[in-house]
Amino acid sequence: METITLNTKAKMPMIGLGTYLNPGKEVKEAVKAALSLGYHHIDTAAVYNNEKEIGEVLQEFFKSNSIKREELFITSKLGISITITVNKCLYYFLKTSLSNLQISYLDLYLIHWPGVERLSPNDEQNASLRKESWKALEELYQSGRVKAIGVSNYEIKHLKELLEDCKVKPAVNQVECHPLCYPSELIKFCKDNDIVFESYSPLGTGKLLNDPKVLNIAEKHKKKASQVLIRWAFQHNLPTVPKSKTPERIRDNINIFDFQLEQEDMETLNSMNQNRHFCWNPEKVK
Questions:
Q1: Phi/psi class of residue 151: alpha, beta or left (left: φ > 0; alpha: ψ in -120 to 50)?
Q2: Which long-range contacts (CB under 8 A, 24 or more apart) does 214-222 make?
Q3: Is the Cβ–Cβ distance between 214 and 231 less than 8 Å?
Q4: Strand partners, 231
Q5: Is residue 220 included in any domain, yes or no?
Q6: Has residue 98 been placed in a domain?
Q7: 21, 33, 139, 163: least CB-packed within 10 angstroms?
Q8: Is residue 272 part of a domain?
Q9: Neighbours of 116 (CB within 10 A)
Q10: How many domains does the chain have?
Q11: For residue 139, what are the contacts with CB-CB under 8 A and spacing of at least 6?
């Protein structure tokens, strides 16, 4: 599996399994399929409410010696609350995630959203609570219980604010990205500041799978639309975490290394950008 090197020197697989799926059997079967097919990167979050099920699958694979913990890259995410403190992050949020996942450390821990639950997007408290949350993540990073820290859904304005006084630079910014939502300025800002831009929802929550331009390119290369979209991200050097609950699609999503999109294909897909979000849009978060 191809990897990208973070500013911590850790290597993150370019393709992971997104697990924004229903907890229970659905997510367990998806993770089992992914690990069996060679995925080494699993992406989850506290708010997904499925860390416990993922942990049970991980233990099955560890006990059978099918895979070792050090061979995996596991990401989870922290939601910012009004009562955020360093101690609460360490002794409640992270402890709960690690306990549910049945592991002793995370490879990557992200602040999930630049806003705060129960606050309006334009509330000035968002900025101060983001700052407090990042201090907490820096403490967790220094403790060794998380190997890298980063953010998710951060705009350039949020990153500039963070970079002004952080002690540890974020390793990753995970953002919705696909041809209809291609934030080239944000990608460049991340690259210029040694932050890996990671794409989530690379298929546009499935809405791009029937797009005529995508289908034409897929037909030309005798590939599926999903493979074209993931390959597009890969050729932009963007790691990505497509989600699926279907073993066949999980297999397809990782089999994108045997073809190359031509320059005209890339230009066609790039030109589709409409800054259209199908998931969360953080632009209004102050």
A1: beta
A2: 214/179, 214/269, 217/261, 217/265, 217/268, 217/269, 220/265, 221/259, 221/261
A3: no
A4: none
A5: no
A6: yes
A7: 163
A8: no
A9: 22
A10: 1
A11: 86, 89, 90
pLDDT value, residue 80: 65
Look up the CATH number of the domain holding residue 129.
3.20.20.100
> Could you list the residue range(s) of the whole structural domain that residue 47 is in?
12-204+237-246
Query: Does residue 225 lie within any of the structural domains?
Result: no
Who's near 188: CB < 8 A, 6+ residues apart?
A: none
Tens digits of per-residue pLDDT, 2-36?
999 999 999 999 999 999 977 789 999 999 999 99
Tell me the per-residue pLDDT of 155-211, one tens digit each, with 9 for 90 and over.
Answer: 999 999 999 999 999 999 999 999 999 999 999 999 999 999 999 999 999 999 999
The Cα 61–Cα 65 span in angstroms is 6
Please report, rounded to a whole number, the percentage of residues in the chain having pLDDT higher than 90.
Answer: 79
pLDDT value at position 284? 87
> Which residue is listed with tokens 């506290």?
46
Q: Which structure tokens are listed for 165?
A: 């006084």
Is 40 part of any known ligand binding site?
no
Q: What is the DSSP letter of 171?
A: S
| Span 242-250, average pLDDT | 95
Mean pLDDT of the chain: 93
